[in-house]
Design goal:
Elements (H helix, E strand, L loop, with lengths): L10 H25 L22 E5 L12 E5 H8 L11
Antiparallel strand pairs: 1-2
Length: about 100
């Protein structure tokens, strides 16, 4: 059986991913305080904070498309489903709800 090589990431990339996780979680916490539950900032419906295999799992989206710009102002929280629709070109996201 042929093994798939494990993709290694640099320390710099690992730090960026950690920062993005913190930014995304703080945005979800803000939405929970504002609306009483975590919501998708595109469609406004309830989402899940943790990946449960659901299309309504919330994840961070870089508004400007630059994955190295991990600032809070560049973070938008979307359902996995809405995020995929955006990247497939079916919906256009230019700003967030609040």
């Amino acid at each position: 059986m042929k093994r798939t090589p494990i993709k290694r990431i640099s320390d710099r990339q690992r730090e960026r991913l950690k920062l993005w996780d913190i930014v995304t979680r703080s945005r979800i916490a803000y939405l929970k305080l504002k609306y009483g539950m975590p919501v998708c900032e595109w469609c406004g419906t309830k989402g899940y904070e943790y990946d449960s295999g659901s299309p309504f799992y919330l994840r961070g989206h870089h508004i400007d498309g630059d994955r190295t710009n991990n600032t809070a102002s560049n973070c938008m929280v979307l359902h996995n489903k809405c995020h995929l629709l955006h990247h497939d070109g079916k919906i256009k996201i230019i700003s967030r709800m609040a």
